[in-house]
Specification:
The chain is of the alpha/beta class and 245 residues long. The chain has helices at 18-26, 44-47, 52-65, 82-93, 100-104, 110-119, 134-147, 215-225, and strands at 3-11, 73-76, 125-128, 153-159, 177-185, 192-198, 229-234, 237-243. The chain contains eight helices and eight strands; from the N terminus they run βαααβαααβαβββαββ. The chain has a five-stranded mixed β-sheet with strand order 1-5-4-2-3, sandwiched between helices. Strands 6-8-7 form a three-stranded antiparallel β-sheet, covered by helices on one side. A hairpin with a 2-residue loop joins β7 and β8. It is globular, with a radius of gyration of 18 Å.
Length: 245
């Protein structure tokens, strides 16, 4: 199933619109580690429950959805709101009482649930965490929905630096960020196709591919740049993103 990107949005400290993102993706440079969007589109009572990472993810979702009709949404994050989980585990270790609100918002599908409730949107929502292949898993799920006849699907990808004491598991993400793409099925010449093939576990990046930014942002760069192809080797697989012109 081929797809096209109907609309996209992204948010990170210092990068709040597509034009600034396109410039940064072409020539990446260090960004601030702190910053939180206003998230004015969400009612204040609900907004107060959301931590920084959730606000960033929801800001990207609102910006990409804008006035488009309701659609299934797939929220994808490798670790989710891990900072909240660390806080809860620390409280457990100290035999302190846990906040029911914090617990309910620590799971991966909490952000999608809040977005659905705030919008009054009864469409299907999903949450995906698939390690280094999280983006590919999310887009595979989206392609499955499009193949079933759903007219449009939104994918929201979000992550932030892993907090202590688990930062040694992943140092790929240097700043909090999120991006969202509203997708539709396409059979045109510019349709994007995603497939994968077996590759050695230590497979190197294709010629010309550099790891100057996290893999999820390299996927975004491919999606919005018009590039003909991008390959992501990980986990014994080589994922191939391509536009068939």
């Amino acid at each position: 199933m081929g797809f096209s990107v109907q609309r996209w949005a992204a948010w990170a400290p210092g990068l709040v619109n597509p034009a600034s993102w396109e410039t940064w993706l072409a020539t990446p440079h260090p960004l601030p580690a702190e910053g939180t969007p206003a998230l004015a589109a969400m009612p204040a009572m609900m907004r107060r429950r959301v931590d920084r990472l959730g606000r960033i993810a929801l800001q990207a979702a609102y910006d990409a959805h804008v006035d488009a009709p309701d659609a299934p949404v797939i929220f994808a994050s490798r670790y989710g709101d891990l900072g909240r989980s660390v806080e809860l585990l620390t409280q457990l270790a100290r035999s302190e009482p846990l906040s029911p609100t914090s617990f309910s918002l620590s799971v991966h599908n909490a952000i999608g649930a809040l977005y659905s409730i705030a919008r009054g949107d009864a469409s299907a929502y999903g949450a995906i965490a698939a390690g280094e292949e999280t983006v590919e898993a999310a887009f595979t799920e989206a392609c499955g929905l499009l193949s079933d006849g759903v007219p449009r699907v939104m994918v929201v990808v979000y992550d932030e630096p892993v907090p202590a004491p688990w930062e040694h598991f992943s140092r790929d993400v240097a700043f909090p960020h999120a991006w969202a793409c509203l997708l539709s099925a396409s059979t045109g010449a510019d349709a994007i196709h995603l497939d994968c093939a077996a590759a050695p576990p230590d497979a190197s990046a294709p010629p010309g591919e550099t790891a100057d930014i996290p893999a999820d942002l390299r996927a975004l760069r491919f999606l919005v740049s018009g590039a003909s192809r991008w390959e992501h080797a990980t986990g014994g697989r080589r994922w191939r993103w391509a536009r068939h012109a």
